[in-house]
């Protein structure tokens, strides 16, 4: 029968022997070159075992790096999509801004700047009702969305918010038969109203006489009248002009600029009050039925006629 406890003196002797043996090997390895070749052979023999033992760790590291890289690419891709959408919306207004800036500088003799805040939203639902053209987006009152707010995609105006709940909003598209939007021809500033006719149908450009300066291919942009849509955003392009006999107005069709049937991301535009600078003079902003006016100071050159100029500007 084996003893349950090892003799303490015997255990101490063993420890001393092991210690002496270890010290001896250390000294021989440090001063005798013979052991170098043995170590080299042992390292060669043990390398496959060490490599095999490290494989699970390398796999875990590779998987972590792959997942991190994939997630980073996904986040970066989303950021680039939003950045591209914002850049496209800014580019929409360049041509209109050049012409509008020239008109304003001539009219006011001042520099005018308007900043517009935007909120990116995604499409949640498309109504299948053939008599109304509406969509639902994933932004609502929690994101400071309100009824009447303009909605755009990367190509142009899509419509406006009809109603907003806490976390979603209903948008009426500009092709809806009940929707109209004030527009102007970007080439010459001629104003009119574009009205929807239903899905997949062009808009109607209304109330223009037969002799109006209108051409196929003319770009229509928001005029800013009414104070709801900021001026300068593309609405569509004139695709057809007809002059029916016996009618006072021409029949003009407009192809919408926005990608109404394919856009998944949209922008909600919120207009901020304009900043006006004119040789250090202060101007008073006067609100009148939802639009903003600029009232010239009493000592300005315009005060004799007491004129107020109504306009909408852009950045």
Taking pLDDT < 50 over at least 5 consecutive residues as the criterion, the unreliable ranges are 107-114, 276-315
What spatial order of strands do you see in the largest sheet?
A: 2-3-6-5-4-13
- What's the tally of helices? 3
Q: What is the C-alpha radius of gyration, as a whole number of Å?
A: 37 Å
CATH topology of the domain at 116-271: Thrombin, subunit H
SSE order in H/E notation? HHHEEEEEEEEEEEEEEEEE
- Count of distinct strands: 17
Percent range of helical residues: 25-40%
Regarding CATH, which class of the domain at 116-271?
Answer: Mainly Beta
- CATH superfamily of the domain at 116-271, by name, is Rod shape-determining protein MreC, domain 1
What is the 3D shape? Answer: rod-shaped
What proportion of the residues form beta strands (DSSP E)?
A: 25-35%
Overall pLDDT: 77
Could you walk me through the main structural features you see in this protein, from its secondary elements to its overall organization?
- β7 (180-185) and β8 form a beta hairpin.
- Among the domains are: 46-92; 116-271, Thrombin, subunit H.
- The longest helix has 59 residues, at 34-92.
- The chain is rod-shaped and about 125 Å long.
- The chain has 3 helices and 17 strands.
- The model is unreliable at 107-114 and 276-315 (pLDDT under 50).
- The chain starts with 7 loop residues before the first helix and ends in a 5-residue tail after the last strand.
- It has a 6-stranded antiparallel beta barrel. Strands 7-8-9-12-11-10 form a 6-stranded antiparallel beta barrel.
- Helix content is 31%, strand content 29%.
- It is of the alpha+beta class.
């Amino acid at each position: 029968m084996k003893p349950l406890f090892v003799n303490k003196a015997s255990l101490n002797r063993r420890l001393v022997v092991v210690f002496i043996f270890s010290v001896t090997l250390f000294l021989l390895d440090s001063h005798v070159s013979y052991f170098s070749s043995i170590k080299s052979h042992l390292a060669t023999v043990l390398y496959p075992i060490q490599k095999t033992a490290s494989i699970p760790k390398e796999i875990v590291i590779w998987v972590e790096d792959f997942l991190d890289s994939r997630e980073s690419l996904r986040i970066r891709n989303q950021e680039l999509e939003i950045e591209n959408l914002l850049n496209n919306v800014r580019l929409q207004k360049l041509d209109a801004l050049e012409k509008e800036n020239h008109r304003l500088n001539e009219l006011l003799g001042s520099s005018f700047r308007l900043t517009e805040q935007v909120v990116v939203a995604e499409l949640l639902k498309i109504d299948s009702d053939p008599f109304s053209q509406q969509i639902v987006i994933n932004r609502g009152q929690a994101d400071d969305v309100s009824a009447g707010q303009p909605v755009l995609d990367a190509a142009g105006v899509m419509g406006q918010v009809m109603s907003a709940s806490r976390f979603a909003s209903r948008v009426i598209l500009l092709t809806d038969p009940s929707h109209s939007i004030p527009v102007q021809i970007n080439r010459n500033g001629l104003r009119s109203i574009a009205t929807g006719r239903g899905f997949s149908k062009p808009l109607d450009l209304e109330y223009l006489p037969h002799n109006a300066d209108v051409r196929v291919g003319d770009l229509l942009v928001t005029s800013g009248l009414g104070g709801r849509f900021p001026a300068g955003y593309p609405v569509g392009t004139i695709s057809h002009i007809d002059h029916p006999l016996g009618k006072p107005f021409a029949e003009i069709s407009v192809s919408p600029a926005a990608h109404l049937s394919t856009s998944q991301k949209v922008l909600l535009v919120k207009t901020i009050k304009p900043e006006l600078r004119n040789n250090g003079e202060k101007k008073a902003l006067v609100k009148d039925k939802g639009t903003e006016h600029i009232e010239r100071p009493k000592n300005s050159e315009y005060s004799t006629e007491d004129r107020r100029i109504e306009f909408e500007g852009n950045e």
